[in-house]
Design brief:
Length: 515
């Protein structure tokens, strides 16, 4: 059997698959806010950061791993697991001193926190929601010959949440702690290292989200390293393919949770590349929209292409080649903010409720940003809307306008990919909602499919583990990435013109608002 882990913004999940029977054997999750309240991070990060700072406590991820594996060991026989892989929220970085390799190699002790906490040289880890590094992005772009050059080399312009600018900010604000740092990992490669008891590589999928990896050579880029911080190359792990095997699992986990000594670990990747695998979309053809804390829009790339506006990214595809991705910060964050502001529950977002407001399709335009957005990059302080007289007082109309605004914003900012919207595969918590899925089909005028498994990143990680052990990935995707007719939604063709017009109005309002 094969275990996939997914360390996302708000939770750590595990999913075990058995390719022999094409079954998902077991799923468990640890919610950082609910299960580990002592970290004071109800949504998985430390609230109250100023000037765009959003950090999380890396000890929380370690404690979550111990707790999750304890829960999993109660539910299933972990000695049957042959290989583990995993995924992590992208871009987040973990900073460790020179004792880290030796701590990795020492499987004694009762808890991961106890063993690794003394090794952190930066007590808190910047995560993908952090927008504090505008100055560092400008400096890196200038030193590397401009943003077009940074994009040509790394697949993205210098981006606030990406690891390189975050590392530069650490070097500038805490030079001594930077100096003491022996190793900088991503969330994904950090957890992979802990499991394998030795330094894991950063895979090409997640490595491309750092502004440090050269897309052509798949190696650290000397110009970008120089532009970011001195002596950086010595602090970075090696780069490798997602399905490369790191080695056997650390003795800590065999002793504590009953894994077999023959169980091995493969590299981990980013949550979006893992989701591409779990959505059965590693070959061009499907567009994936993931509705999570952030919303993401991604697809396997038929050929190399970068976003001329600088919002889109190119990441490694775990199955080889590349994927394009756009990330929207105001995903569930905005849906939850509207729900709470209007005192609604999720039933306001369901198919019936949205059906009742169908006559108002495209009539009210909302820029659906409850806080700073990264696509488009702007410090929004709340949603901006242009609507009919009853719009302000009618919560149902506002729910419709928010969702339409989110999908129109995706349509607008994904044009550069030049993809025909033949089929959309929808995933993430909110995708289970039929009203939201119908809205996606109508705005994009494309059929929407949803798979049986809702945690596509954890499933993708389990499939990567099986592929690393020699199983055929496309054959496994056929077995596991299933959809049913009831889970398919066809677009309403009568709304094509309505949403084409709404897209124009949305673009106008955006232009007016951003100046
Ligand atoms: C992608 C991104 C987010 C995180 C969230 O660029 O920043 O989707 O990966 O987990």
């Amino acid at each position: 059997m094969f275990l996939g882990l997914d360390s996302s913004t708000q939770s750590l999940s595990a999913l075990v698959i058995d390719p022999a029977t094409a079954c998902i054997v077991c799923e468990r999750t640890v919610n950082f806010g609910k299960d580990l309240p002592h970290y004071g991070s109800p949504s998985g990060f430390l609230p109250g950061g100023t000037d765009g700072v959003v950090h999380a406590d890396p000890r929380m991820w370690l404690e979550a791993l111990d707790l999750l594996l304890a829960r999993l060991a109660e539910a299933t026989d972990l000695s049957q697991i042959a290989m583990i892989s995993g995924s992590g929220q992208q871009h987040g970085t973990v900073y460790l001193d020179e004792t880290f390799p030796q701590r990795l190699g020492d499987p004694r002790g009762d808890s991961l926190v106890e063993r690794f906490a003394p090794a952190f040289t930066r007590a808190t880890s910047p995560i993908w929601m952090d927008t504090s590094t505008g100055a560092e992005c400008r400096e890196i772009a200038e030193a590397a010959g401009g943003n077009a050059e940074v994009c040509r080399r790394s697949g993205s312009i210098a981006v606030e949440r990406f690891s390189g600018p975050q590392i530069r900010r650490f070097f500038k604000t805490e030079p001594e702690a930077y100096e003491k740092t022996g190793c900088i990992h991503l969330v994904s490669s950090f957890l992979a290292s802990v499991l394998a008891g030795r330094e894991a590589a950063i895979d090409y999928g997640d490595g491309a989200g750092m502004n440090l990896m050269n897309l052509e050579s798949l190696a650290w880029d000397p110009v970008l390293l120089d532009a970011t911080a001195p002596g950086l190359v010595e602090k970075l792990p090696t780069l490798g393919a997602t399905t490369d095997v790191i080695g056997p699992i650390s003795g800590y986990f065999t002793r504590k949770y009953g894994f077999s000594e023959t169980c091995r670990c493969a590299n981990f990747t980013g949550d979006n590349p893992a989701s591409l695998v779990g959505m059965g979309s590693t070959r061009p053809g499907n567009i994936v929209i993931s509705l999570g804390t952030s919303d993401t829009f991604f697809a396997a790339m038929p050929g190399p292409l970068t976003d001329p506006h600088g919002y889109g990214h190119v990441f490694g595809n775990p199955a080889g080649g590349f994927m394009s991705l756009i990330c929207f910060r105001n995903g569930s964050l905005a849906r939850e903010a509207l729900r709470d502001a209007e005192g609604l529950d999720w039933s306001a977002f369901d198919a019936d409720a949205l059906g009742e407001t169908r006559d108002a399709a495209g009539a009210n335009i909302m820029l659906p940003f409850y806080g700073p957005e990264i696509t488009p990059r702007h410090d929004f302080t709340g949603p901006v809307s242009k609507g009919s007289d009853d719009f302000e007082s009618d919560a149902a109309l506002r729910v419709r306008a928010l969702l339409e605004g989110q999908f129109l914003n995706m349509r607008l900012h994904s044009r550069w990919m030049g993809l025909r919207h033949e089929r959309i595969r929808l995933t993430g918590g909110a995708s289970q909602n039929d009203g939201i899925a119908r809205m996606a089909a109508d705005v994009f005028q494309a059929p929407v499919e949803r798979l049986a498994v809702s945690n596509s990143a954890a499933l993708g990680a389990a499939l990567i583990a099986a592929a690393a052990a020699g199983h055929d990935l496309p054959a496994m995707q056929k077995q596991f990435c299933l959809t049913t007719d009831q889970r398919k939604i066809a677009p309403d063709a009568s709304l094509e013109f309505v949403y084409n017009e709404a897209l124009g109005k949305f673009e106008d309002l955006l232009r007016e608002t951003m100046g």
